[in-house]
Specification:
The complex is a heterodimer of chains A (186) and B (318). Chain A is mostly helical and 186 residues long. Chain A contains six helices and no strands. The longest helix of chain B is centred in the middle third of the chain and has 41 residues. The chains are: A mainly alpha (186), B mainly alpha (318).
Chain lengths: 186, 318
């Protein structure tokens, strides 16, 4: 009779542990989803700013058609990107296209001095900073989630339960690695 | 340990602290009831709890009053506000805390609030005039880490309850020592109550201060994590350490709020020499904090920092 109780007790403990662990996975996944939503908001803000910027530059440099087209195409690609990895790549392409647009703008002193252009430029820089900040948070939540579902015992059951490893959102010029100076101070 | 786990652990710790303070209050009320009257004990307890609730609700504006922190208009200091926004996003806060400025030459910063939504970060104009952008960001990240970890909530609770306990114990002690009317208990009860009334405020104070010091180290590492840049936090601390101005509008009741101890400049660096003095400090020695960051980030900070243009220039304040 005793062994039955021991068995039941062990079973109850196992169920309790499984529930706690499962809840933890759900929570980590939700945190990563929230982190992704934060990036998405900033990416959206960035794509919203671009038509205005293109219009502002077009007013002064209408013949630079190739650059406008490149920016517009990159913007569309970012809007269509569905996974974090693809969005990261599309975002990099857009950054490169925008830097060419700003290089073009350099040649037009009137444009550079216009208040509208300056504000747009400032807003874009700010959005890029915010994407960077949101990326740091998102990537850390993804790391915790992926570590959790790739460790024993969850690695055995994560797939059937619907937990898939998440993609990192990485960008070129990633500055999230601390810059450590090894040079002796002079 | 993930950020969210840290927050949950802190919330649990907050409830333990609040529970501990309530227990301490109950003991005090029990002593009052023992030596005077049971009904007086109940009155003391009720008054203390009402006072505590009032203190917690009013803490936001009270601290604003003590520190002279001014809210900003919509268009003021936009670059600084953007810095706070970016740091909050990096910390994963659901909302950006409000920003307030204290007109004071001493470089320092603090954070206040029960919930992230109602929190604000205060920075002194001296901080803006001292810190380059990278280090200013680290100081703000330290304050945002306090908000994210719910340290501000925990410390508000601890401060208010420590105040209430000091008040009740003080009144009890004075009544017993000088009044002496309506005494019911024997000599042992009176001695017990006297000892209790004398010791309770110190117990509350030590509890409050030990919490504060541990929070500071956690917030330092939190700031390093938010920015992925432990060196910036260490450099900011070194720059604060080299500065010797003290904050004008402060009192010991708000000392634990600031990024660096606003009062005792010399005392805060003495931790290793006389262990006991560091028990009564709100902040761990700056050197200990820098050393912890150096270990986490794997770098060595030079003794002297190169002078860099402060962020105030970009803000048009200098």
């Amino acid at each position: 009779m005793l062994w039955l109780w021991v068995l039941l007790g062990a079973l109850a403990l196992l169920v309790a542990l499984a529930a706690v662990g499962y809840n933890r996975l759900v929570r980590l996944r939700n945190e990563a989803d929230t982190g992704w939503a934060n990036i998405d908001v900033q990416l959206q803000r960035r794509t919203d700013l671009i038509p205005n910027l293109v219009e502002a530059v077009r007013g002064y440099a209408a013949h630079e058609r190739a650059v406008f087209e490149e920016v517009t195409k990159a913007r569309a690609a970012l809007q269509q990107a569905s996974t974090p990895g693809a969005a990261g790549d599309a975002n990099d392409v857009l950054t490169a296209a925008l830097s060419r647009l700003f290089a073009v703008a350099e040649a037009y002193p009137d444009l550079k001095a216009s208040e509208n252009f300056l504000r747009l430029q400032e807003d874009l820089t700010d959005t890029e900073d915010k994407i960077g900040a949101a990326r740091r948070y998102y990537n850390s939540t993804v790391m915790h989630f992926n570590t959790a579902i790739q460790s024993i015992p969850w690695v055995l059951v994560a797939k059937p339960l619907g937990f898939r490893a998440k993609e990192f959102f990485s960008a070129a010029g990633d500055t999230s690695v601390p810059q450590v100076s090894l040079a002796p101070s002079s | 340990m993930t950020l969210q786990q840290q927050i949950r652990r802190n919330r649990l710790r907050s409830s333990i602290v609040v529970g501990g303070f309530v227990l301490l209050l109950l003991v005090l009320a029990g002593l009052v009831g023992l030596v005077f009257d049971v009904s007086l004990g109940v009155v003391a307890l009720v008054v203390a709890l009402v006072y505590a609730v009032f203190g917690i609700l009013r803490s936001r504006s009270m601290i604003s009053g003590i520190t002279h922190a001014q809210p900003l208009g919509d268009a003021e200091l936009r670059p600084l506000r953007r810095l706070v926004e970016n740091v909050s996003i990096g910390a994963g806060l659901p909302v950006t805390p409000e920003l307030r400025v204290v007109d004071d030459d001493a470089p320092n910063a603090f954070a206040v609030g029960i919930r992230p939504a109602s929190s604000y970060v205060g920075v002194t104009t001296g901080l803006l005039r001292t810190m380059p952008k990278r280090e200013l960001e680290a100081v703000i990240a330290h304050e945002v880490a306090h908000i994210r970890n719910r340290d501000t909530y925990l410390m508000t609770m601890a401060t208010v309850f420590a105040g209430v306990i000091a008040l009740v114990a003080d009144i009890g002690f004075r009544t017993l020592a000088y009044g002496g009317r309506g005494r019911r208990a024997g000599a042992i009860g009176v001695v017990l109550a006297l000892v209790g009334f004398v010791l309770a405020p110190y117990a509350a104070l030590l509890l409050r201060l030990s919490l504060s010091r541990r929070r500071e180290l956690l917030a330092d590492s939190g700031a390093a994590e938010i920015l992925s840049d432990p060196e910036a936090m260490a450099m900011a601390l070194r720059r604060l350490e080299l500065d010797t101005t003290t904050v004008r509008y402060t009192s010991t009741s708000t000392a634990h709020l600031w990024v660096e101890s606003p009062t005792d400049r010399i005392g805060s660096d003495r931790g290793g020499v006389l262990e006991f003095t560091s028990w009564f400090n709100t902040h761990p020695p700056t050197r200990t904090r820098i050393a912890a960051l150096e270990e986490a980030g794997g770098f060595r900070l030079p003794e002297r920092l190169a002078p860099e243009p402060p962020f105030a220039i970009e803000l048009g304040l200098a």
